[in-house]
Write a structure and sequence with these properties.
The chain is mainly α and 710 residues long. Among the domains are: 4-111, de novo design (two linked rop proteins); 247-412, no CATH class. The chain has helices spanning 4-33, 39-58, 65-77, 83-88, 90-108, 114-126, 149-177, 255-269, 278-294, 296-302, 306-317, 331-337, 342-356, 401-412, 419-433, 438-447, 461-485, 494-506, 510-523, 535-546, 549-562, 568-576, 580-592, 598-610, 614-625, 632-644, 648-656, 664-678, 682-692, 699-707, and strands spanning 321-322, 339-340, 361-363, 372-377, 380-384, 389-392, 529-530, 533-534. The chain has a four-stranded antiparallel beta sheet with strand order 3-4-5-6.
Amino acid sequence: MADLSDNRLFEGLRSALLRADRVADFALRMSRGGGQVPAGLVGDFLEARVALEREFVKCHDRLSPDLRARLKELILKTKNLKPEVMAQGAERLVERIRGVLNDLMIDGGLPLSLTQEMFEETSRQSSLVPAPTAPEARPKDVARVAPSPRAASFGPVILVAVLLLAGLAAAAAAWAFGLFEASPANSAVGNVARVGNQPAPVLPRPANAPPADNAGAFDAKAAGYTRELKPQAHYVALNLLDPDFDLAVLRATEWPSLLLSLEEDLARIEPARLKLGPADTWRRLLRFAEGAAASDAAWRSSRKPFLDSFVAHCRQETQVVLFPDGDQVLPSDILHAKGGPRLPLILLLCALAQASGADLVVIAPMGREFPLLAQTIKAGIATYDGEQLGLRSSAGKEPAVREMLAALIEKLRPTLATPAARVWASSLIFRCLGDLSPAQAREALADLDLATLSQPAPGDPQRREPYDAQRAAVKLLQPAICRVLLDRVARGDAAEAARLLELALAVADAASVEQALLLLAERAQKGAQFRGEPLPLVVARQLLARGDKAGAQGWFKRAFEEAPDHAAAALELAALAENADLKRYYLRSAYARGCRAPDFLRELAGAQAQAGELLSALALLDELCAQEAGTVQDLADAALLCLALERPAWAQERIAASRHAREPAILRLDLIAEIALHGLSDRARALAQAYGRRGQDDPYIESLLSRLGG
């Protein structure tokens, strides 16, 4: 609440606003009547605007940021106002000024708001009956005589005299016909001089006379008594996560069922969160509704507006008040704590009203964070903001029930302790709004349990329900989370991208997997890995599978550079290389990084031999033959390289140490090496006989032996 000095400043600002409001309201009436606003009226408004700007500067620092912004916008937008513009926007201008006035009353703590003044003035005017006016004289009945200077001089005097004579005659006639009754107050006897300026005695009123302020007939409907209150006997439990349940059709009459359904869901998911059980909460709502229905007749007899009586009844029965902040969100929280923040409190009051059968609704002309309990009456829109009653000229755009429900759940989610309950809240927000903000998507992503998608369903029924709920939540939220957070404007980090990749992989969303991989590779630091492999390598393979060879080659090169100890990137680049020298370079790099796969050794040995690097190729083949995977062909290739190097002894050494020495192809090479070393020796004849017994014709060996005389 503002102090005394602030109140003085706010009074000056309020006076300036009231002056501007009077001019704008007159302009509104003129625009509705004739569609035009005179320039003089615009000038009056601009003078009021100058006074408003002066007072705004004085108390600028003492206003709330929202009120300061609205006042500044009002002052700036009404600068250099034109008559035609004012005529078109008069209604909107009046709404803006009165909205600012209401907020000023809340900020400044002043005793009376403009809406209360409007309501009282409307109530006073509704009981007044205007007197009939005399018909105007027609121009043809007026004598067409030119005025003379004497007539101009004595005309007013003669008119006054005529009026006085007519009044005396009328009074005498009324007295004669008994229109005025003689009373001590009106008679000459009663008009006795009083000594000491004593007040005149008040005459006693008859016992059966109605009160003076309630003398007129009470229009109950105009005051908001549009229906008889009838308690809602029961509520319907709603499954808000049912995909077949359309939240767009929710109405204000379902607020009791909505709020109690939230409590019932939490009783299953996180029972420790509730201050009262759902059944106890409903009993309190029903008891309040029965009390309101029983008090309906007394409210009508009091002649107060319905919303005033309802708010007074709420204060008496529930004793709830407005808290500046707090974690009181659910009806059980507010009833237990005797109060709560504005949004949950107003929604609870609406639920109490609907449970009683009243036609109160929730409006939010200033946004979902500042809702108002409202009722349409003859004078306008009666409102209650949790602290003060008010009257608005229009309700603005009434928010959908699902939007207000989402705003409530947004406040509920931080008060939940378990990930399962928070995922449930995120699912409800998505169901209400159809999308998630980046902050909401990140919160949901952090709480999802992705392991449930790969785990078998438990046999225990108590564990089966949360298992099914978590799987359903993952599948419901995954498209929205990936769509929001995979957008580059979300600006997340590498850990978030990795989590998104895991989520996309868990539900087998190929498109999201690819986007998450690219995003992760961009955000990750140099040398980052995914599942034991360099992250750029995983991205490159994903692009290659899609057919993007050029893009994959770029990521393979990045993986090749960032992971100097990893051979896979070199092998992939070798497979994509079209140049023989470049391919051999990547193969040698893969060998240097530890790759010893048999097929790789054969490919590298062949590339080295083609490049003339015979000793290197021989070394590779020796390494291959030493493995269990070495074949007869590998030994034969090694022996041929020895013979090409004119080292037949090397060939015999490798053949002698091999387990494939008695194979026909190896015997043939051993015979050639023996002949090259010792000619037609005894060992050569023995090898020839052993080779010949294989039953194979070999013209080259036969010609070689015949030349040596064998």
